[in-house]
Amino acid sequence: MKKHSARVAPLSACNSPVLTLTKVEGEERPREPPGPAEAQAPAGTEPGGRTSRHRWTCSREQLRKVFWGVAVLLCVCASWAGSTQLARLTFKTFDAPFTLTWFATNWNFLFFPLYYAGHVCKSTEKQSVKQRYRECCRFFGDNGLTLKVFFTKAAPFGVLWTLTNYLYLHAIKKINATDASALFCCNKAFVFLLSWIVLRDRFMGVRIVAAILAIAGIVMMTYADGFHSHSVIGIALVVGSASMSALYKVLFKLLLGSAKFGEAALFLSILGVFNILFITCIPVILYFTRVEYWNSFDDIPWGNLCGFSILLLTFNIVLNFGIAVTYPTLMSLGIVLSVPVNAVVDHYTSQIVFNGVRVIAIVIIGLGFLLLLLPEEWDVWLIKLLTRLKVRKKEEPTESSGDLGAGPQNRSRRARPSFAR
Length: 421
Prior knowledge:
Number of strands: 4
Order of helices and strands: EEEHHHHHHHHHHEHHHHHH
Structural class: mainly alpha
Oligomer: single chain
């Protein structure tokens, strides 16, 4: 049997300043042979000869994935909500969103070293760092990672990554974290629209409805604060960040396709290297032009900066490599759950007013996000489920009438005396 290796696409920034979504190809697993009793019994019957009903079974592997999924879901929710709240707290004493973006993106360099450490601990066929690096470089073509490939296939994504993060962090200064995290969920709707137009993906009516809900949520969110200047600018920044994220994902799928775990880790590390080499000059310019200025390096809250970067790094690691232990849908649910978490924190730490319009907007955007999580064959699965329910309802009256008819006969047979000796 052929083994298909899992492949992931490092798609940045889905619902946080820095997010990476994953994608997995088909995977074949050998089916367990039936037991002796199952092999001898005819189809649709139990070992005792009675007709079996439809039962929902769950294998140990599925249970393991569900348990891991809950753990990953909580990790995604905590790291994303924590990074957003910590960034907002940092801006109270360190008003430099681009510098914070640059500092956090530098930590992407750790992706490949962490991946290689995991490879050494888990893999039976261990390779040296150089061998593993060369193997992962095949992702960029036969010639590997050349200077031309670096500037044509890595640098554009580094720019999009930085823009996505900066626009989101800058928006947090103007609007609360609840609105920002809810609005960023529209990123998934933008991805669908761009994929439908650019990649010619399959048209799905339910996803069009989800995109409409996302746009309606954006409008209602703007109306919730009465179209104040800060609110409108903040919402526009978040929508721009979500658009950059969607463009990143679609371009990655168009130009690079999908990547294995090692290839994804190497790609994200390369984005960190690009940030160090070519983006460092921008914070320096902003500092000397006093756009993002601080009196001394002692005034920088290094604890907040490092904590924010660690949370984002954890967030990206879980979303890139969590697919190895659970389902992608469960990981995406962690993004939605972070919105109410941010709402609870904002309720106790800021002066946010949860009026009816804001709550409806958040619910509409969340509903659109959940609709986009539906698989392409959701309608076929729904029809099968309804068919099973109808068959079960028809079987229950037939079995109950059969039991009533057989009851008196059994009782008369037991009560009848036997005179034959």
